Amino acid sequence: MLYEAFLAKIASYGIIPVVTLNDVRSVDGLAGALISGGLPVAEVTLRVSEALETIRIMSKRGDLLVGAGTVRTLDQARAARDSGASYLVSPGFNEAVVHWAIDQQIPILPGVDSTLGIEMAVAKGLKALKFFPAGTSGGPAKLSALHGPYNDVRFVPTGGIDAGNLDRWLTHPAVIACGGSWMVSMKLLENKKWDEVECLVKEALAIASRHTGLRAEEGAGWTTG
Ligand code: 3PG
Fold first, then answer.
1. CA 61, CA 63: separation in Å to the nearest integer?
2. Catalytic residue among 9, 50, 130, 218
């Protein structure tokens, strides 16, 4: 998927569910809940041994935008791509991973929480970055401070976001989407609470829909720019 098309896509959803799944037999149940909820997108974290298989099964379905999260090494990036991941998300800025992803034309959202990380990412030509860990890195106030000098950069805050503060984050002019596990927590997944996942996804999308105009405008800019 082209970088700009990826950014436009996540901007249109406004939310990226961050999934850590340790039972591949649950992939279809989870995928069904996300799709029924109206959010056919997932960032599957490489934090459990089943992650690559989850990506493989989920991406093969063809009805979800599946990416890999917690990509910390080049080997992980390659394995995620080979398993079918359409995009990569990293907790920090790893130059080798970012360089490889750009070379392979696989969209990447490296995590940053400071001016240094932003500088490094912008130097690579990236336009949108994960802001991580959003809640404890200064929250929306920190993002506002960063948005001053870096008003051409867009962010995907992740870490500490839930239905209670989602609106506040999505209102921020620098935010194109928020990532989070609150609607797909490990507890919900372990207990196969698919109805609950679907409800939480719908609730999140209802909040995100209040800001769609702004993000769609941004998305259109990326698509044509
Ligand atoms: C991530 O992997 O991006 C975060 O750990 C997700 O953070 P959350 O669990 O606070 O949503």
1. 6
2. 130
